[in-house]
Amino acid sequence: MSVETAARPERHSACEDAIAIVVGTMFMALGVVIYTKAVLLAGSTAGLALLLQYASGIGFWWLFFAINLPFYVLAVRKLGWAFTLRTFAAVTLVSIFTRLTSELVSFSHLDPLYAAVMGGALSGTGLLILFRHRTGLGGINVLAIYLQDRFGIRAGYFQLAVDLAILAAAVFVIPLDRLALSVLGAVVVNMTLAINHRPGRYLGVT
Description:
- By secondary structure, the chain is mainly α.
- It has helices spanning 3-7, 14-37, 44-56, 60-104, 112-132, 140-151, 155-168, 176-196.
């Protein structure tokens, strides 16, 4: 085997992509349920939509859909229809799995600190799986992947900056102790991405 052949990225099969999207969204859904049970605030587009819901009274899903529209346009133009369709599928699956998981999993006791770390780790791992199969969860995820591909800005660091800005805006929405834990969770999510999702480190392509 030549050096050129050995270094050539191995393309994911359609089956591998499908399995990865299902597993990644299941990780995300469990992370969301843990956050919900502990009354923690997520970052990214979901966190922004939640804050706008508190301020305006408009339903969360209408806001979530509207905020994502310009990012889907970016996804189509810069990342292609295949990426965009996978992202639509992932967003739908997270919605479905979150509802199912909340009915299948219950907690008699959930320490908020553990919830912040474990919920963040699960969400970060879910995003990592999706990113490595050229799939996002709309909104900031799309922009993060584009900026990493185009300018080499690490997706995890960019998302961390955005998440911290959203969480800072929540200072009047949730108790300060839960806000601090939400910041910790955002750090765990995005450090998971920053450490493991670097250009050139993972060669699998979709």
